[in-house]
Write a structure and sequence with these properties.
Elements (H helix, E strand, L loop, with lengths): L15 H21 L11 E5 L8 H14 L4 E5 L10 E2 L7 H4 L1 H6 L5 E3 L3 H10 L4 E5 L11 E7 L19 H5 L4 E5 L2 H11 L7 E8 L10 E6 L4 H10 L3 E7 L8 H13 L3 E5 H4 L11 E3 L1 E5 L3 H10 L5
Parallel strand pairs: 1-5, 1-6, 2-4, 2-5, 6-7, 7-8, 9-10, 9-11, 11-12
Antiparallel strand pairs: 3-4, 8-13
Length: 333
């Protein structure tokens, strides 16, 4: 579902459409509440960290997962990721093989994450967790499984875009949420709020009183790869949760974004679409640029024609997160 503008209205002034759709939102909340109370069918013998959100849509779970992979690896822990493989055709459980699988088979996020750690795609997450444990996982990172009760969780992170907060605070379709804020956060151990300083202040002001667990602030920044972005005429396109964030990152790098094409989240990048984008970019004497997550969906013929902006999540104050990881894996001297 595409986001509606009224979803981002203040919670205390949601507007007429949100109020009219509130009965349907109540049904969404009820359905989620029933689902999350089911007993888990898998209790792995290794710690399970869930990276989820309350929003229906992108909040920064993928960069958060990559950051956790890096943090666990630095501790000497071997993490495996278990994902539903949204947008992919494979039911699994199957380990993602970048040489054999494409985004159409396993989904773009699992394909991207497979560059950092072993990734298992499984519509039955319990089966995926068992496969990961059998294959030697010392930690299981459950991607986007916060509302899925299939696997028992040892640590649950709720990721939120600090600039948007929890929108108007209502459930689909009256708002952007999968479940009410109070119900969801009652099961969370940490909230990871992603954004700059201004966004962080606004999030804590608007929502801080409703967050019963520690808030870990973080931001996403572009990797320094030596690419001379300054002054580059860029024809940017992105099919992520909030494309405008990718375009802002490119501008911050000094690129001249002459066109910004916002696509749907996970939108297939067909040859026809890329041919049209390439033609438009040539008419503007501009270079095609996209995100890492979009790049894994590019047709083979276009992979050398499109530049990619790699980004990583950095924790501003990781103390609560490190304390939670210490409880699962005592820090080594």
């Amino acid at each position: 579902m595409r986001p509606f503008r009224f979803w981002d209205r203040p919670a205390n002034a949601p507007g007429l459409r949100a109020r009219a759709l509130q009965p349907l939102g109540a049904l969404t909340a009820l359905a989620t509440a029933r689902r999350v109370t089911r007993p888990p069918s898998a209790r792995p013998n290794v710690p399970v960290i869930c990276i989820g959100n309350l929003h229906a849509g992108g909040t920064g779970k993928t960069p958060t997962t990559i950051a956790l992979i890096e943090r666990l690896t630095a501790r000497g822990v071997t993490p495996h990721v278990v994902s539903r493989g949204y947008g992919g055709q494979v039911a699994g459980p199957v380990r993602v093989d970048p040489q054999a699988h494409d985004a159409a088979a396993v989904g773009d996020e699992p394909l991207l994450l497979s560059a950092f750690a072993p990734v298992w795609v499984a519509r039955d997450r319990a089966a995926g967790a068992r496969a990961a444990e059998t294959a030697g996982a010392q930690a299981i990172l459950l991607d986007d499984g916060f509302q899925n009760p299939g696997v028992a969780k040892d640590l649950s992170l709720v990721v939120v875009d600090a600039a948007r907060g929890f929108g108007n605070g209502r459930c689909l379709p009256a708002g952007p949420l999968r479940e009410p804020v109070d119900a969801g956060l009652s099961r969370a151990d940490l909230v990871v709020a992603i954004g700059d300083g201004i966004a962080q202040e606004a999030f804590r002001k608007d929502w801080g009183d409703q967050v019963p667990c520690p808030i870990v602030s973080a931001h996403v920044e572009a990797l320094q790869t030596g690419m001379p972005w300054e002054g580059l005429r860029a024809f940017a396109f992105a099919g992520i949760g909030r494309p405008e964030k990718a375009f802002a990152t490119l501008r911050d790098l000094g690129a001249d974004v002459v066109h910004a094409e916002a696509l749907d989240d996970h939108q297939p990048l067909t040859t026809a679409l890329l041919t049209r984008l390439e033609r438009d970019a040539q008419m503007m004497n501009a270079q095609l640029v996209t995100t890492e997550k979009d790049a894994v969906r590019l047709p083979e013929a276009f992979r050398r024609k499109v530049l990619t902006v790699p980004v990583r999540l950095r924790f501003d104050a990781p103390g609560p997160l490190d304390a939670a990881l210490d409880a699962l894996w005592p820090a080594r001297d």
